[in-house]
Give the backbone structure.
Amino acid sequence: MADKKITELNELTDPAVGDLTVVVDDPSGTPETKKSTLQKIADLLASLSQTLTNKRITKRVSTVASSATPTPNADTDDIYTVTALAEAATFGAPTGTPTNGQGLVIRIKDNGTARALSFNAIYRAVGVTLPTTTVAGKTIYIGALYNSADTKWDVVAVASET
């Protein structure tokens, strides 16, 4: 292979963990060009940790106006909002792959008419009662935590606007 500048090399669009990359070791002392696998670099990056101080974590919010089967997605929703429920609703089991202890908030508001509510069996009330109906024009919050040992979304909070 002829000598080439890095910028002249062909791009690898599907790297694998066993692929090699170039590393300059000790750049401020005695620089030496070496090779490393992408796996070793990935392992190094995974071992690094940071403490976040005074940082905001923006919640992932998904919104639907109305649905007979509203279904949150555990991979993309921290808060699932129904803004104008216009029919009876049965909340489906969240799609995606939740992690143990992952939180989910469901916020429900009807379109000015009370609507019947029901929930897939994966939602388990713990110390609370799941609502069976909305109150016309009022907001309901439901807070749940994923319990991987039981494969359930444990509903631990229910609050309704008065």
Summary: Strands lie at 20-25, 32-37, 61-64, 79-85, 89-91, 103-110, 117-119, 123-125, 139-147, 152-160. The chain is about 5% helix and 35% strand. Residues 14-47 form one domain. The first strand starts at residue 20 and ends at 25.
